Each structure stands twice: as C-alpha cells, then as structure tokens.
Here is the input.
Amino acid sequence: QVRLVESGGGLVQAGESLRLSCAASGRIFGLNAMGWYRQAPGKQREFLASVSSVGRTNYADFVKDRFTISRDNGQNTVFLQMNNPRSEDTAVYFCNLRSLSSAVEGQYNYWGQGTQVTVSS
Here is the structure.
C-alpha cells in the first residue's frame, strides 16, 4: 500500500513564502504524475499543479506565476513552493499520485490526508 503524507502547511502572512512537501512511501512503478490540489470550505477541490516522473509539468493558470512544483524522484517526494500567497489561497492542500500507464493492471490513484494552509492579512 502506497501512502502519501503532506507537510509544511500552517499559518502564514500574506506575501510570505512557504513550501509544502508530500512524501510517498513504497516503490512507485511506471509512468506517473504527482500533483497538488486544494479545497476551500464550500468549494470544489481544484487542481493546482502536477509533475510527471519524466519531468513534465502542468499548472493551473491562476497559480502559474506564484507557485512552483518540483519533484525528487529518488525520495518519491513532491514540493509546492508558494510565493506571495494571498488570503484566497487559504484551503486544505492535498497531494495526489496517479499512474499515467494505459495498462489496467498498472492503474493507481492515491491521495494524502491534506494539510491546512491559512493565509492571514
């Protein structure tokens, strides 16, 4: 069983930088992507960014200039660098790991428990 554990959330002031981390336990096989999502109270969970095991990145337009995703394949860890966070960035941030393989036998989709990020003005 693969587990994802997020860390790095907390209370920050608007404009301060923070970095979220997500560590995946166990061995990860095949082409895959690790990404970040967030969900604010009363809102839908929304995609933020992802990076594949071969380095391809994808960003939501509304965070592209402020957030940066990176990945350490050796540690099975993904990071989200959040620069100039705003109060509207307050949400629970979730880590995701999913297979990009077309083979049915190789499919997986894992989620972390989430970490709270609160941005104060």
In short: The mean pLDDT is 94. The CA atoms of residues 71 and 78 lie 4 Å apart. The longest strand covers residues 91-99.
